Amino acid sequence: MFLLNTHPDHRKPLLPEDAETLGAAGAAAVESQIRQRENYAVTPLHDLPALAAELGIGAVSIKDEGHRLGLGSFKALGGSYVVVRLVLEEASRQLGRAVDIAELQTPEVRAVAGRMTFSCATDGNHGRSVAQGAQLVGAQAAIFVHSGVSEERIAAIARFGATMIRAEGTYDDSVAEAARVSAEKGWSVVSDTSWPGYERIPGLVMQGYTALVAEALRQMPEPPTHVFVQVGVGGIASAVAAHFALVLGEKRPVFVAVDPARAACMFESARAGEPVKAEVGEPTVMAMLDCYEPSLVAWRILSRVADAFMTVEDADAVAVMNRLARPAGHDPVVVAGESGGAGLAGLIVAAADPAIRSKLALDATSRVFVVNTEGATDPARYAELVHGGRSASGVSSKPAG
């Protein structure tokens, strides 16, 4: 499904608070913090010329977040960034003076952090980031997971010392449960989705994601003409779209928000003209995007700076995983998890449809930017979908018997 953005707010300026958070200054603040991390490195931007030629467009560039800060996902830029920021803010309040990132490991600041607990709900990647951030500063983490989160992803979070809490129902149910329990216990919720009265922290999480766009703009010889990014609750899509719009202004690229067909909360909101909950059905294979209620902050941003909304099928996402694992020509191998290549899947679907190509002005001069938002964060699932149940080395990932 595809539709152009016809919302009355389309192409209107972002709200001042969103512009302040997601512009160049916000990205610079994030980069200043993450450069202090021991495993900091700029993630690669790969060109895919063989794929671009097949699609009849000028260029495809993919930012590979599968290498980000040891977590294998763009989420490493969000949750842990906010945890560190909140600890520094609380330390400044308690100590009665400004506390800098250089003091993060001092006894005084670690004593403050040691009395703090950070919580969130997660499909997997965001929880890892929050837990990693808590471990980094010496705080506690309580991570809520719903029944659809795999044991492998739960173990990946727990290894950072987080307390894991099971919640019944969907991701959205776990968000509500995390908010309820955290309010009772006085924990600090670091959510990547927002609701009425809870907007600042999700905005800061999205600010974290702008760092990847700032990096990409420095890596590109010239800015893209088109951008396709996957949605979920909307944090990554709105951060990328907003940063491009704020930095490039009238020269910003055409932005397309891509939802899984089975969890199309932003697409359905665009169709309705207001935030709506998508119908809950069979879970999508794109596990990190299996969300049915959009973030309110993300909606108000995308209603202004997204130019189109579309959906892709599970089969499209799996096909992209396999294409990136076994590329044509001299395109590099890119390891993309189930949700990682959803934006690229959107481009491939759009490029194959003459009507959509025309509406988006996709042609032989187009330069398209996409984000691989995760690597193989669930190795067993990746092996199943890409290697027929075998790891890349050819060893079966399935249990014997």
From TrEMBL:
SUPFAM superfamilies, per the entry: Tryptophan synthase beta subunit-like PLP-dependent enzymes (SSF53686)
Entry annotated with the keyword Transit peptide: no
Keyword Thylakoid: no
Keywords: Lyase, Pyridoxal phosphate
InterPro entries according to UniProt: DiNH2opropionate_NH3_lyase (IPR010081), TrpB-like_PALP (IPR001926), TrpB-like_PALP_sf (IPR036052)
Cofactor: pyridoxal 5'-phosphate
Residues covered by the Tryptophan synthase beta chain-like PALP domain: 40-359
A Pfam match: PALP
PANTHER family, per database record: DIAMINOPROPIONATE AMMONIA-LYASE, PTHR42937
Stored NCBIfam families: diampropi_NH3ly, PRK08206.1
Record's protein name: Diaminopropionate ammonia-lyase
Organism: Bosea vaviloviae
Lineage, uppermost ranks: Bacteria, Pseudomonadati, Pseudomonadota, Alphaproteobacteria, Hyphomicrobiales
